[in-house]
Amino acid sequence: EVQLVESGGGLVQPGGSLRLSCAASGFTFSGDWMVWVRQAPGKELEWVANINQDGSVKHYVDSVMGRFTISRDNAKNSLYLQMNSLRAEDTAFYYCVRDPTPVISATAYDAFDVWGQGTLVTVSS
Amino acid sequence: AIQMTQSPSSLSASVGDRVTITCRASQGILNDLGWYQQKPGKAPKLLIYATSSLQDGVPSRFSGSGSGTDFTLTISRLQPEDFATYYCLQDYSYPRTFGQGTRVEMK
After folding, report:
1. Rg for chain B (alpha carbons), in Å?
2. CB within 8 Å of B50: residues ≥ 6 apart
3. What is the pLDDT of residues A83-108, one digit of tens each?
4. Does B92 touch chain A (CB under 8 A)?
5. Which pairing describes strands A18-25 and A78-83: parallel, antiparallel, or unpaired?
6. How far is residue B44 from each of residues A23, A117, B22, measured CA to CA in Å?
7. Strand-strand pairing, A10-12 and A119-123
8. How many CB pairs lie under 8 A apart between chains A and B?
9. If contacts are CB pairs under 8 Å, which of residues 56-85 in chain B contact chain A?
């Protein structure tokens, strides 16, 4: 069964740090882009960051640039999100997502086809 | 960043109705758009990518169309399990951006 399981969420004070992990199973982890998407309680989805298959290419949303770092360990089938200098507005459920980037007529598209159950990060004093 | 605006923000419909949700991009995004369904307390589910390509296992009553700046998700005959919130997502440029969501409620 294809599965993504996040861990590492919790309550942290403003300015603190947290590292999220995502354990992948049931597919060839090293073959796919991976993504973090977050959702504040009751709010819309927000794309946070992605990373390519070997970890050499990463992109971030502006609001987390310089504070968050996405990484992966293909030997451990794991994705990570190191979050530093956390702010109240970072409070959200964080989802680990697979993106196999299907190709149609030589163009690759995003297709977030497998999602974890989410882990809640609460930034509050 | 490209802004994605969905309309309506919510709608009420009955089982069997034809439902149309629109997503407008603040600039042209070719056909780089996907649609996701989310039910309360659950992770989103991929419905459509590349504007009109149906994800494996998604019922054929879901369809997508559009190009450039205007896109549409259509549910041909609404089923009880389709009451949910729907989001569009552009993958034309970084950062990727979602629409604000359209909640489909039971009339």
Report:
1. 13
2. A102, A104, A107, A109, A111, B31, B32, B33, B34
3. 999 999 999 999 999 999 999 999 99
4. no
5. antiparallel
6. 18, 9, 18
7. parallel
8. 65
9. none
